[in-house]
């Protein structure tokens, strides 16, 4: 730890490279849960977590800079985040600058080969689709497969870019500096659930592609799947090369998606805990906000102390908003590309399920329905956390206005401090955007779903017309 700037001390949730002290007496490395158990925050009466708010001059300054070596070291991050990032190391995606040049070169070769195979596959699918006469079912199947592989390939490139620029580590560090990670710890169970879901999704992806590989070797015709696609390298048995490349990038797609979800949920929980602090400030005993885990700070009952407390809240909120801006800078292109590709994939995969051929009804349903589930899950993961973050950010103003102790009775100094805080909260377009076009909100999600249903109805009608005009 000599390379860490003395102005920044890692919070208790940040891990360091394993050393001799990190091993149990039996010689086995300590688990992440054991590490967290050693460093629980102070617990007060009735199991309520006590949060001390300090001035920036007494603690960590939001503008303090650690050494570049710390920022680039992937080990000094939250243990939950490391559980997802460790899967990147298994896949061979290691582009952190702290890695040796040899490791980064090997990672570049692995990622480049898989991405090039997938790009060639996408081009071949487009060529086969346009070469043959139009059939709605066959075109829908080809487009859904091609867009999913395209989405996975782009996710792999985004993941490599995030590692090369150390953006996830910088976001996590800024989250901990802004509010000491109290919201992340308070909602630890929810973040653990996200990590468990990550493992389940990866297992289902491997099982799904394993079934496809077995079906290819057995030469099973699956619904409207174009048989020419499997002969991309001449012999159908060589199609396993494309399937393994697809599986590799789709696993990277899962890692990138859960990094996206975990970081945005972390920011959401920080704002949620911050809002609970604003609501619970000097509320009466028995208030429903007492259940949130925040204890009222009765030492701020004097006017001057309350003004200082509001100023501290403004400083914390400013640090959290800077985290959101960094999240938007990191994810706005990724969110745009993923949403733009997941919409046609979902529509055409639903079309595949609705237009099942009677000759292979069972096989078509078995291989199409999981793709629909993956598409729906990824769409929810892409829009759920940003919309929740947006609502939580704008709930701060309502929480402040609802705190009657601040506004009544009228005290000029407290009133003007609270009014300055309200003006500070009026920040438009604060959240994760789609490449700057629009912030992801619930209204945007509702509009997108409406457009998707309309397009699905249109394509179903086109499919019926195509089937009616097809010669017997």
UniProtKB/TrEMBL annotation:
<protein>
    <recommendedName>
        <fullName>G protein-coupled receptor</fullName>
    </recommendedName>
</protein>
<feature type="transmembrane region" description="Helical">
    <location>
        <begin position="198"/>
        <end position="218"/>
    </location>
</feature>
<feature type="transmembrane region" description="Helical">
    <location>
        <begin position="108"/>
        <end position="127"/>
    </location>
</feature>
<feature type="transmembrane region" description="Helical">
    <location>
        <begin position="365"/>
        <end position="383"/>
    </location>
</feature>
<feature type="transmembrane region" description="Helical">
    <location>
        <begin position="238"/>
        <end position="264"/>
    </location>
</feature>
<keyword id="KW-0812">Transmembrane</keyword>
<keyword id="KW-1133">Transmembrane helix</keyword>
<feature type="transmembrane region" description="Helical">
    <location>
        <begin position="80"/>
        <end position="96"/>
    </location>
</feature>
<feature type="transmembrane region" description="Helical">
    <location>
        <begin position="444"/>
        <end position="462"/>
    </location>
</feature>
<keyword id="KW-0472">Membrane</keyword>
<feature type="transmembrane region" description="Helical">
    <location>
        <begin position="139"/>
        <end position="160"/>
    </location>
</feature>
<feature type="transmembrane region" description="Helical">
    <location>
        <begin position="334"/>
        <end position="353"/>
    </location>
</feature>
């Amino acid at each position: 730890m000599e390379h860490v700037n003395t102005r920044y001390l890692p919070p208790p949730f940040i891990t360091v490279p394993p050393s001799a002290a990190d091993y149990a007496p039996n010689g086995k490395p300590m688990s992440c849960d054991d590490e967290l158990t050693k460093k629980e925050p102070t617990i007060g009466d009735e199991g309520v977590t006590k949060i001390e708010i300090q001035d920036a001059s007494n603690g960590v300054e939001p503008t303090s800079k650690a050494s570049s070596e710390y920022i680039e070291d992937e080990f000094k991050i939250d243990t939950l985040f490391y559980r997802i990032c460790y899967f990147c190391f298994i896949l061979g995606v290691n582009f952190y600058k702290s890695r040796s040049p040899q490791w980064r070169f090997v990672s570049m070769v692995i990622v480049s080969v898989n991405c090039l195979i997938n790009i060639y596959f996408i081009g071949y699918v487009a060529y086969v689709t346009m070469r043959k006469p139009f059939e709605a079912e066959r075109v829908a199947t080809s487009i859904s497969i091609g867009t999913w592989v395209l989405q996975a390939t782009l996710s792999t490139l985004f993941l490599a870019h995030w590692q090369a620029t150390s953006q996830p580590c910088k976001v996590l560090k800024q989250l901990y500096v802004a509010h000491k990670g109290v919201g992340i710890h308070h909602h630890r169970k929810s973040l653990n659930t996200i990590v468990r879901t990550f493992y389940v999704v990866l297992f289902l992806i491997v099982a799904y592609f394993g079934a496809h590989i077995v079906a290819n070797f057995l030469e099973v015709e699956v619904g409207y799947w174009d048989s020419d696609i499997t002969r991309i390298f001449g012999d159908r048995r060589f199609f396993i090369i494309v399937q393994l490349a697809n599986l590799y990038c789709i696993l990277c797609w899962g890692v990138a998606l859960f990094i996206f979800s975990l970081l945005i949920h972390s920011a959401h929980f920080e704002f949620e805990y911050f809002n609970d602090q604003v609501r619970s400030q000097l509320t009466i005993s028995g208030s429903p906000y007492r259940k949130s885990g925040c204890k009222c700070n009765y030492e701020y009952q004097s006017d001057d102390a309350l003004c200082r407390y509001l100023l501290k809240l403004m400083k914390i909120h400013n640090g959290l908003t800077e985290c959101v801006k960094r999240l938007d800078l990191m994810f706005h292109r990724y969110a745009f590309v993923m949403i733009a590709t997941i919409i046609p994939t979902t529509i055409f995969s639903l079309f595949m399920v609705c237009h099942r051929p009677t000759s292979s009804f069972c096989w078509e349903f078995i291989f199409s329905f999981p793709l629909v589930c993956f598409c729906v899950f990824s769409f929810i993961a892409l829009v759920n956390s940003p919309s929740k973050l947006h609502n939580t950010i704008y709930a701060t103003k309502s929480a402040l206005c609802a705190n009657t102790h601040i506004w009544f009775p009228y005290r000029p100094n407290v009133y003007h401090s609270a009014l300055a805080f309200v003006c500070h909260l009026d920040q438009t377009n604060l959240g994760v955007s789609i490449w700057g076009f629009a912030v992801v909100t619930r209204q945007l999600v509702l509009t997108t779903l409406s457009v998707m249903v309309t397009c699905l109805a249109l394509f179903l009608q086109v499919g019926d017309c195509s089937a009616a005009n097809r010669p017997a």
